[in-house]
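Quick one, T. Sequence first:
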Amino acid sequence: MAEPESTVINTDVEQKDPSEALVIAVTTRAIFNLEKEHKLYLEKGKEEYTRHQQANQDTPLPPGTAFAFIQAVQYVNEKILERSPAEKDLFDILVLSNNSPESGMRIINSTKHYGLEISKFCFVSSEDSTQYLKSHNVKLFLSADRTDVCNALRRGVSAALVFQQEVEAPSTPLRVVFDGDAVLFSDETDQVFQKQGLEGALQYEQAMEAVPMGEGPLKAFAMHLGRMRKKFSQEESPIRTYLVTARSGRDMGIRAIKTLREWGLAIDEAFFMSGAPKGPILAQIQPHIFFDDGLHNIQGAQDMGVPSAWVPSCC
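Structure tokens:
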């Protein structure tokens, strides 16, 4: 596979081994608020956008939705290295951008301004930049472009669409919230629900109770995160993971719990909402990122100021 048009190695950051690290790729519009610049690009074209970025290359961009998440994974790296200085199973962050290296200088300068440990900046001229994800062993891709996210999911990479919003940076430790069906788990029960309604879905779950659910699009990322989590005791862990699902605990929770146990995936806390709004419980958790396949749940989370990422099942 061809290399990106231009890859800038950040020599200020110790490079990680991508075969051992948990590699996360973020686009510039996911990590920074570039909505004004993106509008300029759409209305005035690439040349005017490039001129603007070059003229403002020393002006830091404001933080975007995934900014606090990236800060929190840096905190996890610090705690892991404090415990074991030779550890190689760390988070590794790279920026994937359709900017040219010239207009991308503002991106690089902004990450340095905020002290973000970005190991690589990949400036890609191809319309489908996701073709480079597998070559970098990316385990999670966050983008503000739906086409990019769908392309990544089709390539078998855990991916989610970040909606731009202003969020306050939650305190550490890193807190990640997953929805269940069509995110951690497959959408098999959702499909039954669409065809046969709630009663049919309940009957299906009861019949399949002893059979683990299939893998969802974010399972691979969650499993690696879980392995990192196990390096610490529960009290000392810099990572906390949550399951917040529309499933009811009494009728549909058993299979979810059995599936997590079968996978060996430890979740710190699980909430079975029985279809109730997720926003209030998310506001209590204050996650650095919340993954869900339901746009209504994403909206409810955003209303509570929770940084959210949509995992589309309709690509």
